[in-house]
Design a protein that fits this description.
single chain, mainly beta, five-stranded mixed beta sheet, about 0% helix, elongated
Length: about 110
């Protein structure tokens, strides 16, 4: 068998974010089986709000561009550029036609620092 389902799990992520703030999204690729020639990648969309998504010290990702996933444990960093609600949808896929989607929603944190 070559084609195995997979999912991407993540640790809890803050639901509130201030403009200019960055949140870390720690992820883990979990496969239901192993095929040595399987490759994984992702693309993302931002239907609401404005922000920057990157991984480690990479250049910011562009919406709808496809990027290879080179590690099974990885971290995204999302930086808010908006005071509105923000949503990012990340679509993962493998070279055998399997897909998995993650969606994150952030509300503006307008509380004052004390």
């Amino acid at each position: 068998k070559q084609s195995y389902e997979f999912k991407v799990t993540h640790l809890p992520v803050s639901k509130k974010i201030k403009k200019g703030e960055t949140v870390e999204i720690r992820c883990q690729l979990e496969r239901s089986g192993y095929f040595s020639e399987a490759t994984y990648g992702f693309r993302y969309f931002q239907p609401d709000g404005s922000g920057i998504l990157r991984m480690d010290d990479s250049e910011p990702f562009l919406p709808n561009d496809y990027y290879n996933l080179t590690k099974e444990s990885f971290r995204f960093y999302y930086t808010s550029q908006s005071e509105d609600q923000q949503v990012i949808d990340i679509y993962f896929s493998d070279n055998l036609g399997n897909t998995f989607e993650l969606s994150f929603s952030f509300n503006n944190d307008n509380s004052e620092e004390q």
